[in-house]
Amino acid sequence: MTTATQQRKEPEVLSHSSLAMLARRVGKESLKGVEFAMYLIYIPTTTIIKCIADITDTPLTNEGSEQNKMDVTQKCLFLWKELTKCTKTNQRVKELERALREIGKADIADILQERHQNSQELTQEIFG
C-alpha cells in the first residue's frame, strides 16, 4: 500500500554510495574536497572545521593523509545531504554541479549531470 507520506525514491546521484564515490574522487586531490564543501550553500564554514576536527587531530594540509582528506569530504557531503533533504532534487544536483565547476572540476560536473539525467549512480568505473 502506497501512501502520500511515503518518501520518493532517492535520486541515484544523491545516494550515499554516489556521494562517497564523489568524495573519494574530489577529496583525494590537494584540499579540493574542503574547497568543494565550502561552495555548498548549506554547510557553514564552522561546520566544515568541526568535520575536520572529528576526522583528524592533525592539521589538514596538501601533504597530509589522502584518506583523511577523503573522509572529511565524505562527512561534509553526507551532512550536506541531510541538511538539504527537503530541497528539490534538481536544485540539489545543480548545487553540486555548480560547486564542482567552481573548484575547476567541470569534467566531474558533466559526469554528475549526465548520470543524474540517466538515473545512474556515480561509480568508480566512470572515473577511470
Describe this protein's structure.
The protein is mainly alpha-helical and 128 residues long. The protein is globular, with a radius of gyration of 15 Å. The protein starts with 15 loop residues before the first helix and ends with a helix. The chain has helices spanning 16-27, 32-39, 45-55, 66-83, 89-102, 106-117, 124-127. Mean pLDDT is 90; it is low at 1-6. It has seven helices and no strands.
The share of residues in helices is 55-70%
Proportion of strand residues:
under 5%
Count of helix runs: 7
Largest sheet: none
The rounded distance between the terminal residues' Cα atoms is 42 Å
Query: Structural class, please?
Result: mainly alpha
Mean pLDDT: 90
Structural shape: globular
Count of DSSP strands:
0
Radius of gyration: 15 Å
Low-confidence stretches: 1-6
